[in-house]
Design a protein that fits this description.
There is one protein chain. It is built from 17 helices and twelve strands. With 388 residues, the protein is mainly α. The strands form five sheets. The chain has a three-stranded antiparallel β-sheet. It starts with 5 loop residues before the first strand and ends with a helix. 30% of the residues are buried. The mean pLDDT is 90.
Length: 388
Amino acid sequence: ACEDMIFVPVYIGYDRVLEESAYVHELEGGQKEPENISQVFRARKFLKKRFGKIYIQFHDPLSLNQLLEQHGMGLQAMNSKEKNTFCRNLGFRVINAINKTTVVTAHGLCASAILNTPKTRFTYGHLKFIVETYMTYLNTQGGKMADTLLMNPDYAIENALDSYVQRKLIEALPKEKDDTETIPEYNVNDNQRINLEYYKNNCISFFIPAAFTAMEILKLDAFQFSAPQLHAGYKFLQHMFKNEFAYDVNLTTEYHVRKTIKAFIDDAILMPHQTLPDTYNVTSAGFRKLKFFANFLKTYFESYLIVITVFMVYSKDGLDAKERMKHIENRGRRMYKREEIERRESLSKLTYQNAVDFFLSQGVRGSDDNKRATVYLDAVQEYLNRLQ
């Protein structure tokens, strides 16, 4: 129908979204409601409130002809399997192009810091330390941050926290009378963690290479390691979470590990060994920072743990897809109440479905496949143990 097809990846982001409750409803597995003209009139009330800024960024256009030329084959010459592979890679390219133009906001970084701290109660100083760690990493990776973060990070962080307090996502703990010296403390509203998860996910793509690398360093349980020791584990995580994150098909595991290690060195998380090549030592302060990055994955580990335990209980012929999901949701709620998992945001139907699709693709269909399932169960439990 045309000589070429051009894809223009466009990023549109918000400090705060008007449809926050609708997005959260979808994250929890609810159906997206069709839009209609009456919603436009009802939306007028939102114009009286302050929702911050909107960010729009454009990536360089992608030419279908150029991509086919790189592929070395035209569409008409491809069989069905080759077309599926090409279209999947095209999808990854578009998603990665959008991710690269994403603007990281104070709301996204604060939500990440709040959810990635192991305690529900935290001080302003502790939160600021984590946010600054993330900002240092983004600077080394060329991540684009909102102007407010670059010009006045203290104000941007305080403004994001105030916004979360006003919406009751977090609670500012009261001070004693006439207390002007105590550092402000906050408490996370457990019922609102899924709202914070949405804002965390707005910037998570930048941190996945760091999260995978940090997780593998922690798994080694040693203060000295060589870079090649991380490669197999990095590939395992990339494979297991292929339904969660879109990876750049042109970049290798070795590239991501090497680039992340350099960023960790710049922030004194790691120190190169004086004599051994490609060997590094974890600093005492760096060990704590590694968990700030690895904790981006904790929600996913917990969701996948819930799903794999259900697969190991019921035979592949014992449940249809709808019944299986119902059992997964029930089991997730039980495990959360028993404190076998920590994060409420792990009870996500969307992540459950991604996990189901992954395990099915790996030949895990029920208790008959427990030998294969145990490999993933043991791996997930080991990763979670390193994040305690």
